[in-house]
Specification:
With 432 residues, the protein is mainly alpha-helical. Helices cover 78% and strands 0% of the residues. It has 22 helices and no strands. Helix 20 runs antiparallel to helix 21. The radius of gyration is 21 Å and the shape is globular. The chain starts with 8 loop residues before the first helix and ends with a helix.
């Protein structure tokens, strides 16, 4: 069977075998009472916890450096370690999911996030702070990878809307931590309290996932008693899939653009003569656009036979934003911030395509782990190169040109990843 012969998502879902034991419990269509409500609540609470550990630290980085006596190199390591941890620990998610079940691993991720956030402000040393941060990021990494799996397995007929809900909650958590950490720091009398307070959000998320984990284990025992026939998702090698590689590169390039925007856009505006306060508000506007659009874009994308048009539209917004930053950074600052905010919504689109490009439970696990782990590795050099180019040239012209150039391959690989095919179909076509 050729890849072009793959059917639509709905028909694939209807005909695909029951997910392998590595997935969570059967979807809410078969769940009873409280469980059907608890899963969306769990997804939202998990998503809210996937970025505050990072953005809260960014808001208090100067205070943390002074408090622990960090030098500039170690502080730089703190800002670059998240994508590295996401890549390393995220690659372990499929093995953990097969061993314990996706729901149990996500629950463990919430526990790790909570424990790391409680411990790291009070370790009293740079080494302890880094170790606790790594624990938190490990919990975030495995949850990052498995959330699309949970959505696919529990809501096979609502991948777009549930991915949008998850992405919107993630954007809210990101923006909330960036906005209120400094006031919390002032109210609590120090940076330790300003960082540790976010552990409360993680503790709340543990509760529904503890219940869902037990339900998942019950479903796995039932699956073990009545095993489903082996499907293409069990044996496929995702590294041999062109679609998987296209999606991984798309994920990596959009992550590169997002980290560059978060790290450097305020400085670009400040160097153009805009005040620090206004530059911060411009960044907040860019990030806040992800809240409504993260819900809309997946719903639009899933209704299209191919997601290439959405990829192209977002990429053109990015090119327009970078062109504006190069030509008139101060004069059209609000327009460029809005355009880059729209462009950064390639993240929920990438998550949606993970669910669309695989039609079995094991396939989604493998594709999510591969696309995110490889993608985050790809994203590591970009923000560093922008800083190097700025230092080398003494201005922002060349760095902005570099950012704009990255949009071109992002559009190309995103269009390839958006074609109507699945990694299982590619596997079967090669095996035929």
């Amino acid at each position: 069977m050729a890849p072009e012969e793959s059917t639509s998502l709905r028909s694939e879902t209807a005909s695909s075998p029951t997910p392998a034991p590595s997935g969570p419990a059967p979807g809410p269509a078969r769940a009873k009472g409280l469980l059907a409500v608890l899963m969306p609540v769990g997804i939202v609470l998990a998503a809210l916890n996937l970025r505050p550990a990072i953005t809260s630290l960014g808001s208090l980085l100067e205070e943390v450096r002074d408090g622990l006596g960090m030098n500039g190199t170690l502080a730089g390591l703190l800002t670059s370690v998240p994508p590295l941890c996401f890549a390393v620990f995220g690659s372990l998610a499929p093995r953990l999911s097969r061993r314990f079940g996706a729901g149990t691993v996500v629950c463990g991720g919430m526990v790790a996030i909570t424990a790391g956030l409680v411990v790291r402000p009070f370790t009293g040393s740079t080494a302890g702070f880094l170790a606790a941060t790594a624990l938190t990021l490990a919990g975030i990494a495995v949850s990052n990878v498995l959330m699309p799996v949970v959505v696919k397995n529990w809501f096979p007929d609502r991948v777009g809307s549930m991915t949008g809900l998850y992405s919107m909650a993630l954007a809210i958590g990101t923006s909330l931590a960036a906005a209120v950490t400094v006031p919390l720091n002032d109210a609590l009398g120090g940076w330790q309290g300003g960082l540790a307070i976010w552990a409360a959000l993680g503790a709340v998320a543990v509760v529904p996932w503890a219940v869902l984990s037990r339900q998942g284990r019950a479903a796995e025992r039932e699956s073990a008693a009545h095993p489903a026939p082996a499907g293409p998702g069990d044996a496929l090698r995702v590294t041999r899939s062109r679609t998987a590689w296209s999606l991984a590169c798309f994920f990596g390039l959009q992550a590169t653009a997002a980290y560059i925007t978060m790290g450097w856009m305020p400085q670009i505006f400040r160097d153009a003569g805009i005040s620090a306060g206004t530059a911060g508000v411009l960044l907040a506007v860019t990030m806040a656009l992800g809240i409504p659009l993260a819900f809309v874009i997946p719903r639009v994308a899933i209704r299209l036979p191919q997601q290439g048009p959405v990829v192209i539209a977002l990429g053109l917004c990015g090119l327009g934003g970078y062109l504006g930053l190069a030509l008139a950074p101060a004069g059209g600052a609000w327009i460029w911030a809005l355009l880059l905010g729209v462009s950064n919504c390639a993240f929920p689109l990438a998550l949606t395509m993970v669910g669309l490009r695989a039609r079995t439970g094991p396939g989604v696990v493998k594709l999510s782990a591969f696309a995110q782990s490889t993608g985050y590795l790809i994203s590591i050099p970009g923000p560093l190169l922008v800083g190097v180019l700025n230092d080398a040239t003494g201005g922002w012209g060349v760095p902005i040109l570099f950012m704009a150039c990255l949009m071109v391959p992002q559009i190309i690989v995103g269009t390839l990843a958006g074609r109507n095919r699945t990694i299982e179909d590619e596997h079967l076509a090669k095996a035929a």
